[in-house]
Specification:
The complex is a heterotrimer of chains A (about 775), B (about 170) and C (about 425).
Chain A (H helix, E strand, L loop, with lengths): L3 E6 L2 E6 L4 H7 L23 E5 L7 E4 L10 E3 L3 H15 L16 H8 L23 E3 L9 H9 L6 E3 L6 E3 L13 H5 L5 E3 H5 L8 E2 L2 E2 L8 E7 L2 E7 L12 H5 L14 E2 L2 E2 L2 H19 L4 E4 L6 H14 L5 E2 L4 H15 L8 H4 L4 E5 L3 H4 L1 H12 L3 E6 L11 E4 L5 H13 L7 H12 L3 E6 L5 H14 L7 E5 L5 H5 L7 H10 L4 E5 L3 H5 L2 H10 L2 E6 L11 E4 L8 E4 L4 E5 L12 H11 L3 H6 L2 H4 L6 H7 L7 E2 L6 H6 L11 E5 L13 H6 L5 E3 L1 H6 L7 E4 L2 E10 L7 E5 L3 H4 L9
Chain B lengths: L1 H15 L23 E3 L14 H5 L5 E7 L5 E9 L8 H5 L5 E3 L14 E2 L1 H4 L12 H4 L27
Antiparallel strand pairs in B: 1-4, 2-3, 3-5
Chain C lengths: L19 H6 L4 H8 L2 H11 L11 H6 L10 E6 L8 H8 L1 H15 L3 E6 L4 H16 L15 E6 L9 H8 L23 E5 H13 L1 H6 L8 E8 L5 E6 L4 H8 L9 E5 L19 H6 L8 E6 L4 H15 L5 H18 L6 H12 L7 H15 L1 H10 L7
The chains are: A alpha/beta (about 775), B alpha+beta (about 170), C alpha/beta (about 425).
Chain lengths: ~775, ~170, ~425
C-alpha cells in the first residue's frame, strides 16, 4: 500500500499515490489533460508541450506553467488545468502543430479515433492564422501491413520511442532536425519488427495506418466490436476485432491489465483476415453435393448412429482441436455420449506432442509451478529461454522479455537455432534438439552441487541464476520434447527458494492447448491411427483439425477417408477439399463465434464473437449440438458439466458457465496430476545422425493466420537450413534441392545457417494445406 | 344563430373573388428557391472528377441512417466511394449531409419529382446520384488543398504547399 | 590600463599559438603545480573563494557547481570543456583556443584534479577544426612533458584529455545536448533533473565548463583568490573577455575588468559608431539576451548589474546597431538563426520559430498584416515554455525587439515598406 498525498486539481482535493506521474494521475481520475507524447507504456518525453498546467508546490508558493507528464505529485501540490494562461498555451501548441498539418481529415483513416482531432477540440483551437505554405514529405513503402503518410506527422516521437526503445527495433528512425524531422527507414522496405503493427495505435495522427484496413475502410464508430481472445498462439492476448456488414474489417488490441496491456504482435493483428475468406464452401455437402444444414446434420446423425449400432462403441474416432474453444471440444465429447459410443478423441498430431503438452499443462494448471503474467515477466532480472524461438512461437513473450532486457535482466538462450533475441543474450547454448534436456540437466546439477567446478559453457548461466532476485524460465512445449519439459520443471523447482520464487512458463502450440490437455478422454495419435488402420474404427469426425496435417499429407488423408464407412468434417477452414469427406459442415470462424480458451497460464478467458451478417451463423460447437439434438439427446446437454469432460475442479463449473468477456479471465484448477504423466514413458526417439528441428515462424507456421494474405506474403519461403560444416561434410552446396529426410518426396532448397546446431536440419513448420501450395521444386 | 351563419357566408363570399393560391401542377411548375432541400446529388469538381471522397461524414450525421457507403481507393490514389446508396424512402431531406460534407460533394437540389411505384426503386445507388456538374460550389476542389498525392497532383503541388523536403540533407 | 590575464601571452599579430616552452617561460603550469600540492577540496575552496562565475553565459558560480559532484563516487567521472562556441557575435573562446591552448589545458587539469576526474573532453565545434588541431598538438606537448596522462608530475593523479569535433549544430552548445552528441546520439537536450553533475556523460557525474571559465583557473591558483577578486570593478571578481561587433569603428576582443561600463566598451575600445548614425541598440551578451537601448548604456558589464537592468551578461560580446538599421530586418535575421538551429524536439520551438521568421520577413518586406502583431505576441509568450533553454534564449532578443521597437514593426505593416534602413 503506497503512501497517499493530498493534492488539489482545479479546486477539488484528491488523494493520490505519492511520487506518481501527475498526468497519469489526472487521466486516471478522468480529468482529460490534453497530451500527445506521453504514453502509459512509453513514459513521458516532454516534447509535445501540450500537457501544460499551472502547478504550485503548495498554496502559498507561486504557480508555474509545467508539463504535467514530467511532474511527480507531492503533498500539498496545487494544480490548475483550466487556468487561462495554461489554456491559451495549450491552444497555442495545437496551433503550432497545425501549421504544417495537411487538410486530410476526410481522406484520413485515423479520423474518428484520431488523437489530434480530439486534442484539437479539447484545446479549443479553431482558426488557422498562418498564411504561409505547408511543409510536405514523400512517403515510404514500409511493407504490406503499415501505410505511411508523413505529411500528417506532428513529431511527437512516439513511433521511434515505441519501435526503438520499447520494442528494440532498429530499422525505423529519425532523420533531420528543426521543423524538418522525418520518421522512416533508411531505405523503403518491410519493417522488420514483428510488433510494427502497434505503430498504428501508438501514432496519434494518421502517419502510420493499418494498410489492410485501408482497403476495407469503415469509420470506427460504425464498427461492431467484441472483446475476443487471439487464436494464433497460446498466450491469449485480448483483441478488439471490428466488423461491419458481413466482414471483419480490422483487429485492435484490447487492453488486459496482466497480459497484453497495450500492444499485440502482427500475427494477431493481421492474421484474422482469414475469417472473411474461409470457409470457401459455405454450404454443407453430402458426398460432394450441396445440401441444407438440416439435411446434412440429420444424415450425419443417422449415419453415425448406424455405425455405432453396427460396429460397436469403438467404431468412431474423432479429431478434436487445440485451436477451438472449450465449448467446441466439449460438444464433440458429448456427441460421443449421445451416440452411446466410447469417446475416442485425438487432439494432437503426434505422440510426442501429446505427452509434452499434457505434461506441461498439468504442471501449469495444478500450480506445481508459478506461471508469470506478461507484466510479471517484464520485471524479472534473469531470463532463460529454452528449447524454442520466442519470437515465432509466443511473440508477445518476446516483447515482454525485451522489457526485462531493457531493465538490465541477464538473458540466456538454449536453442538449436538462433532467434531474433539472441543478440541480447549474455550467452547462447547452441545444442541439438535431442540434447536440450541434457543441457538443462547439466545446469540443474551445477546448481545442486555448488562445490563442483562448473562447465565453462554454462558457467555464466549458473552464476547469474544464483544471484538473480526474480528468475524466469521460458520453455517451449511445442516441439514434443517431454524430457525437456521435465528437466526444466526440475531446474525451476531446484532454483526456487523461499525468499526467491522462480517463474516458469511453458508455451504451447495453439490457443487452447492447455484447455484440451485437460480433456479426460484424450487418445494418443498412434492409438487412433491403429484403430483406423486395423478397421476397428469405421468413421472419422474432424472438428477444426486439419486431416492432412494429422495424417501427414493430403494423399494419406484421402486414403484413410476412402477406407472409412463414414467421415465428417466440421470446420471453419476447408483446408482439404470438402468432398473428400462424406459430410462437410461449414462452421462460422473464430472471432465470429464465442467460446472459452485456456491460455499458457491456465487462465480461462471468454472470447466474444462478433455478430455480422455472414452466411454462416453457427460455430462448430453449435453444429455439434444440433447433431446431438437431432439424435434426440438434448437432455444430455442440460446435465453436461465442464468437470465431466475436462479435468477441472467441480466447484468451477458455475464460474465457467458464467464467465463473460468482461472479466480478465479466471484461473482453472486443473485436476491432471503431473506425477501420473511423468510416469508415462516418454516416446524414445531413435538416435539419428541428422535430427530435424521445426522452425516455427512468426508468419506462416500458425495454421489460421497463414491463410491471411498479408501473413502469407511475409512468410519466409520453405527451405532446409543446415550448418555449413554439415553441408561440407555431406557434399551439399547452397541452393541444392535435397529431400526432406522424413518426407522424401518433398525436396527443398538448402540454405546454410551457421547459427544452427551441428547435426540438425531445420525446416519451417508449415500447415499441410499451406505447404502443399508452397512452390517447391520437385526434381525429377 | 342566423348571424353566425351569415358571418360564415360572408367570409366565404370574401374568398370567392380572391385569387386562388392553388396552381395547376404539373402544367404549372412552382418556382423553387435554389437552396430548397430536394433530391440529393453527388457533384463533381471543376476538373470533372467526382468530389465524394467517402469520408463517411454524411452517413454519420444522417438522422435516419439512410446513407450507406463504402470507401475504396482508385489506382491513381484518389479515395472514392465504391458504393454509395441513399434510401429515399427514409430520407427526410434535412440537409445535414450537405452541411457535413467537407468536399461539397453531396448537395440537395430543388427537385422533388422522385415518385416511384416500387419501394425498391427509391434506393438510389451511386450512378443514380452522381452528376457531372459542380452544383452550388463551382470553384472548390478538395484534392487541391489536401496533402495526399494523387494522379495529376504530386506531393508539394497542392495549394500553398512547399515542394517535398529532402530529409536526407544535412543542410540546416 | 587593466591587467591582462587571459590574453597576456597572446600576440594579436602572431597567428601561431603559444608554444609549451613560451607558456612555461611566462609562468605557465605554475597554477597546476600549486594545485597538485593541495588536496582536491582545498582547490575547490580556492575557486569558490575567488568568486569566479561561469563564462558560458549563465554565470553560475563555478566553485559551487563543482561542489555538486559527489567526491565519494567510485566510478568514472568526466570533465568536459564546452568549446561549441556558436552564439552569433561571440568569438572569445576562439581567441583563447587558437592563441593559448596550454592555458585551457592547465585549467582543465586543475579542475579535473579538484573533482578527481581522470578523463576529459574538449568538445569543439566543427568550424574550429584548426583549433582542434592546435589543441591536439598542445595536448601532445603536455603529455610529453608529463602534464597529462598517467601520474602527472609524480602526483599519482591521472588525467587523459582528448578533443572531440562536433558535427556542427548550435544546440550542441547546450550542456545536455552536448552530452547526447558526445555519446553518439541525436543532439536533443535532456530534461534536468537529473543534473549532469550527478548523471551526465554515459550516466556518470560530469562537469561541463566553458573555455573562458577554465582558462581563469590557472591564474586563480597561481596568484590566489584574493588577487583575482580585486581584478574587477565594484566588487566583481576577475576579468572578462569582452567583444564588440556590428556598427562600431574598431570591432574586436578585449580583456577588461569585470564591471566595465558598456559605454566604455562601446566608445573607448570599440571606437564609437562606425557610421554617421548614433547607436540605437546593443545586445549585451551576444545574441540570446534582451536588447539594451541607449538609456541602459551606462550599465556596468557584470552579471548582477546587467541582470538588474533587464538583460543578461551572457558572453559579453556585444552586437551593436545604429539608427540606420531596421530592427525588423535585424529581428528577421536573428530569428532565421534560431529557426535553423532548433533541434526539433519540442513543439513551440520547432514550429514556432519558423512561423516567427516567416511573419517577421513578411512584415519586413511590406507584406505584413495587422493581425501579425497578435501572432508575434502570442509566440513571444509561448516559446518560453519549451524543453530546454534554447527557445527562451530566442525569446530574449525577440521579445525585447517587438516591445522596444514595436513602432518599427507597426510602421512596416502600415506603410507596407521599410523607411528606416539606410
Amino acid at each position: 500500500m503506497s503512501e497517499l498525498v493530498k493534492i488539489s486539481i482545479d479546486g477539488q482535493e484528491y488523494q493520490v499515490p505519492a511520487g506518481a506521474n501527475l498526468l497519469q494521475v489526472c487521466l486516471d481520475l478522468g480529468l482529460m489533460v490534453p497530451h500527445f507524447c506521453y504514453h502509459e507504456a512509453l513514459g513521458p518525453a516532454g516534447s509535445c508541450r501540450l500537457c501544460a498546467a499551472m502547478v504550485a508546490p503548495s498554496a502559498e508558493k507561486p504557480a508555474q506553467l509545467v508539463m504535467t507528464c514530467m511532474t511527480k505529485v507531492s503533498e500539498g501540490m496545487v494544480v490548475k488545468i483550466q487556468d487561462p494562461y495554461a489554456k491559451d498555451f495549450r491552444r497555442g501548441v495545437i496551433e503550432y502543430l497545425m501549421l504544417n498539418h495537411p487538410h486530410d481529415c476526410p481522406v484520413c483513416d485515423e479520423g474518428g479515433e484520431c488523437m489530434l482531432q480530439d486534442m484539437t477540440v479539447l484545446s479549443e483551437h479553431i482558426h488557422r492564422r498562418s498564411r504561409f505554405p505547408k511543409r510536405t514529405w514523400r512517403n515510404q513503402y514500409l511493407g504490406p501491413l503499415i501505410h505511411h503518410e508523413m505529411n500528417r506527422c506532428i513529431t511527437c516521437y512516439r513511433c521511434v520511442r515505441f519501435y526503438r526503445e520499447y520494442a528494440l527495433g532498429k530499422d525505423l528512425g529519425v532523420f533531420g532536425s528543426r521543423d524538418r524531422v522525418y520518421f522512416g527507414r533508411v531505405k523503403d522496405g518491410v519493417l522488420e519488427s514483428e510488433f510494427a503493427g502497434n505503430l498504428v495505435d501508438v501514432c496519434p495522427t494518421g502517419v502510420f495506418t493499418n494498410k489492410r484496413f485501408r482497403e476495407v475502410y469503415s469509420r470506427p464508430w460504425d464498427l461492431h466490436t467484441a472483446r475476443a481472445i487471439c487464436v494464433h498462439c497460446s498466450i491469449g492476448c485480448n483483441l478488439l476485432p471490428g466488423g461491419r456488414h458481413r466482414t471483419l474489417r480490422r483487429i485492435k488490441p484490447h487492453p488486459h491489465k496482466e497480459l497484453n496491456r497495450f500492444f499485440i504482435c502482427d500475427r494477431g493483428r493481421y492474421g484474422g483476415e482469414y475469417v472473411n475468406l474461409y470457409p470457401r464452401q459455405t454450404r454443407p455437402t453430402i458426398a460432394g453435393t450441396e445440401v441444407g444444414f438440416r439435411e446434412a446434420i440429420h444424415h450425419a446423425a443417422t449415419q453415425l448412429r448406424g455405425i455405432v449400432e453396427q460396429h460397436g462403441t469403438k467404431a468412431i474416432v474423432a479429431l478434436g482441436s487445440s485451436r477451438a474453444s472449450l465449448e467446441t471440444n466439449a460438444a464433440l465429447n458429448l456427441l460421443f455420449k449421445a451416440l452411446g459410443a466410447e469417446p475416442q478423441i485425438v487432439y494432437y498430431d503426434s505422440d510426442e506432442e501429446y505427452a509434452a503438452v499434457r505434461l506441461a499443462a498439468s504442471l501449469t494448471t495444478s500450480r506445481a509451478i508459478t506461471v508469470p503474467t506478461l507484466v510479471e515477466m517484464e520485471k524479472c532480472d534473469f531470463v532463460l529461454s529454452i528449447g524454442g524461438d520466442l519470437t515465432g512461437e509466443a511473440p508477445m513473450f518476446d516483447l515482454s522479455v525485451r522489457q526485462a532486457i531493457r531493465a538490465g535482466a541477464a538473458f540466456f538462450v538454449i536453442s538449436p537455432r538462433a532467434g531474433k533475441l539472441d543478440e541480447f543474450a549474455r550467452s547462447v547454448l547452441r545444442v541439438r534438439p535431442d540434447a536440450l534436456a541434457q543441457a538443462v540437466e547439466k545446469i540443474l546439477q551445477a546448481l545442486s552441487n555448488p562445490a563442483e567446478t562448473i562447465a565453462p559453457e554454462i558457467a555464466d548461466i549458473v552464476q547469474a541464476l544464483r544471484s538473480a532476485k526474480k528468475p524466469l524460465f521460458l520453455c517451449s512445449a511445442i516441439h514434443g520434447d517431454v524430457a525437456l519439459i521435465k528437466a526444466t520443471y526440475d531446474l525451476a523447482k531446484a532454483a526456487h527458494q523461499e525468499n526467491r520464487p522462480c517463474f516458469l512458463a511453458y508455451y504451447y502450440p495453439a490457443a487452447n492447448s492447455v484447455g484440451v490437455a485437460l480433456a479426460n478422454d484424450s487418445l494418443e495419435p498412434t492409438k487412433a491411427l491403429d484403430l483406423l488402420r486395423t478397421g476397428t474404427a469405421k468413421a472419422v469426425i474432424a472438428v477444426e483439425h486439419d486431416l492432412a496435417t494429422f495424417f501427414g499429407n493430403l494423399e494419406n488423408a484421402k486414403g484413410i477417408l476412402e477406407k472409412c464407412a463414414f467421415s465428417m468434417i466440421v470446420s471453419s477452414v476447408d483446408s482439404i477439399p470438402p468432398d473428400m469427406a462424406t459430410v462437410w459442415l461449414p462452421a462460422s470462424p473464430h472471432y465470429l463465434t464465442s467460446g472459452k480458451f485456456v491460455n499458457y497460464e491456465g487462465r480461462v478467458q471468454h472470447s466474444e464473437g462478433l455478430s455480422l451478417a455472414t452466411p454462416l451463423t453457427d460455430g462448430p460447437a453449435d453444429l455439434l449440438l444440433s447433431l446431438i439434438e437431432d439424435l434426440g439427446k438434448s437432455a444430455l446437454l442440460e446435465q453436461a458439466q465442464y468437470s465431466d469432460i475436462f479435468a477441472v475442479a467441480a466447484e468451477q463449473n458455475v464460474e465457467l458457465d458464467e464467465l463473460t468477456a468482461k472479466d480478465g479471465g479466471i484461473f482453472i484448477r486443473g485436476q491432471l496430476r503431473p506425477t501420473d504423466l511423468m510416469r508415462d514413458s516418454s516416446p524414445s526417439l531413435p538416435k539419428r545422425e541428422m535430427i530435424r528441428w521445426d522452425i516455427i515462424q512468426t508468419f506462416g507456421s500458425e495454421e489460421l493466420s497463414a491463410l491471411a494474405p498479408p501473413i502469407a506474403e511475409l512468410a519466409a519461403p520453405a527451405r532446409i537450413e543446415m550448418h555449413p560444416d554439415d553441408m561440407a561434410q555431406q557434399n551439399i552446396a547452397e541452393g541444392d534441392f535435397v529431400p526432406v529426410p522424413d518426407t522424401p518426396s518433398m525436396k527443398l532448397k538448402v540454405v546454410p545457417n551457421p547459427n544452427l546446431a551441428r547435426g540438425t536440419f531445420a525446416v519451417p513448420r508449415l500447415p499441410a494445406h499451406v505447404a502443399s501450395q508452397v512452390p517447391v521444386e520437385v526434381q525429377a | 344563430m342566423i348571424r353566425d351563419l351569415l358571418t360564415g357566408l360572408q367570409i366565404t363570399a370574401k374568398y370567392i373573388f380572391r385569387r386562388p393560391i392553388t396552381f395547376e401542377y404539373p402544367e404549372e411548375k412552382p418556382i423553387i428557391p435554389p437552396r430548397w432541400r430536394g433530391r440529393i446529388v453527388l457533384t463533381s469538381d471543376p476538373d470533372g472528377e467526382e468530389r465524394c471522397v467517402a469520408c463517411y461524414l454524411c452517413q454519420a450525421v444522417c438522422p435516419v441512417q439512410c446513407i450507406d457507403l463504402q470507401a475504396t481507393h482508385r489506382p491513381d490514389g484518389r479515395r472514392v466511394a465504391a458504393k454509395f446508396d441513399i434510401n429515399f424512402a427514409r430520407c427526410i431531406f434535412c440537409g445535414f449531409c450537405e452541411e457535413a460534407c467537407p468536399t461539397y460533394a453531396i448537395q440537395l437540389t430543388p427537385d422533388f419529382e422522385m415518385s416511384a411505384t416500387e419501394r425498391s426503386s427509391l434506393l438510389y445507388h451511386k450512378e443514380d446520384l452522381q452528376i457531372s456538374g459542380t452544383g452550388k460550389h463551382p470553384e472548390y476542389s478538395f484534392w487541391k488543398v489536401s496533402g495526399v498525392a494523387i494522379g495529376g497532383k504530386d506531393k508539394g503541388q497542392g495549394l500553398n504547399e512547399e515542394p517535398p523536403t529532402n530529409y536526407r540533407s544535412n543542410m540546416p | 590600463m587593466s591587467e591582462k590575464v587571459l590574453l597576456k601571452n597572446i600576440d594579436p599579430k602572431n597567428p601561431q599559438p603559444v608554444t609549451f616552452e613560451q607558456y612555461v617561460k611566462n609562468g605557465g603550469y605554475e597554477g597546476a603545480r600549486i594545485a597538485l600540492s593541495k588536496t582536491p577540496l582545498e582547490v575547490q575552496q580556492i575557486v569558490k573563494d575567488s568568486g569566479l562565475r561561469g563564462r558560458g553565459g549563465a554565470g553560475f558560480p563555478t566553485g559551487l557547481k563543482w561542489s555538486f559532484v559527489p567526491m565519494d563516487y567510485q566510478g568514472q567521472k568526466y570533465l568536459i570543456c564546452n568549446c561549441d562556441e556558436m552564439e552569433p557575435g561571440t568569438f572569445k573562446d576562439r581567441a583563447l583556443v587558437y592563441g593559448d591552448p596550454h592555458q585551457l589545458i592547465e585549467g582543465m587539469l586543475i579542475a579535473a584534479y579538484a573533482m578527481q576526474m581522470t578523463k576529459g573532453f574538449i568538445f569543439i565545434r566543427y568550424e574550429y577544426k584548426k583549433g582542434a588541431e592546435i589543441l591536439d598538438r598542445a595536448i601532445a606537448e603536455a603529455e610529453q612533458h608529463g602534464w597529462l596522462g598517467k601520474n602527472i608530475q609524480g602526483s599519482g593523479f591521472d588525467f587523459h584529455l582528448e578533443t572531440h569535433l562536433s558535427a556542427g549544430r548550435y544546440i550542441c552548445g547546450e550542456e545536455t545536448a552536448l552530452l547526447n552528441s558526445l555519446e553518439g546520439k541525436r543532439a536533443n537536450p535532456r530534461s534536468k533533473p537529473p543534473f549532469p553533475q550527478i548523471r551526465g556523460f554515459l550516466g556518470q557525474p560530469t562537469i561541463v565548463n566553458n573555455v573562458e571559465t577554465l582558462c581563469n583557473i590557472p591564474h586563480i591558483l597561481a596568484k590566489g583568490p584574493e588577487w583575482y577578486k580585486k581584478l574587477g570593478l565594484n566588487g566583481n571578481a576577475g576579468t572578462k573577455l569582452m567583444g564588440a561587433s556590428g556598427r562600431v569603428k574598431t570591432p574586436g576582443l578585449w580583456e577588461l575588468p569585470m564591471g566595465t561600463p558598456l559605454s566604455v566598451l562601446l566608445n573607448e575600445y570599440a571606437g564609437g559608431p562606425s557610421r554617421e548614425f548614433p547607436f540605437k541598440a546593443v545586445i549585451p551578451g551576444a545574441l540570446s539576451t534582451p536588447i539594451f537601448t541607449p538609456e541602459q548604456f551606462d550599465t556596468p558589464m557584470d552579471f548582477d548589474s546587467v541582470a538588474k537592468a533587464g538583460s543578461r551578461l551572457g558572453t559579453a560580446c556585444v552586437i551593436v546597431f545604429d539608427e540606420g538599421d531596421c530592427m525588423v530586418a535585424a529581428t528577421a535575421n536573428i530569428m532565421k538563426f534560431y529557426a535553423r538551429e532548433s533541434c526539433g524536439f519540442c513543439t513551440p520551438c520547432r514550429e514556432g520559430m519558423q512561423w516567427i521568421y516567416d511573419t517577421v520577413c513578411a512584415i519586413r518586406d511590406g507584406q505584413g498584416q495587422p493581425s501579425d502583431m497578435q501572432v508575434l505576441d502570442d509566440l513571444s509568450r509561448h516559446i518560453a515554455h519549451t524543453f530546454c533553454a534554447f527557445a527562451p534564449g530566442a525569446q530574449d532578443p525577440f521579445l525585447s525587439a517587438i516591445t522596444k521597437f514595436r513602432h518599427e514593426f507597426e510602421e512596416h505593416i502600415a506603410k507596407r515598406t521599410c523607411s528606416i534602413a539606410k
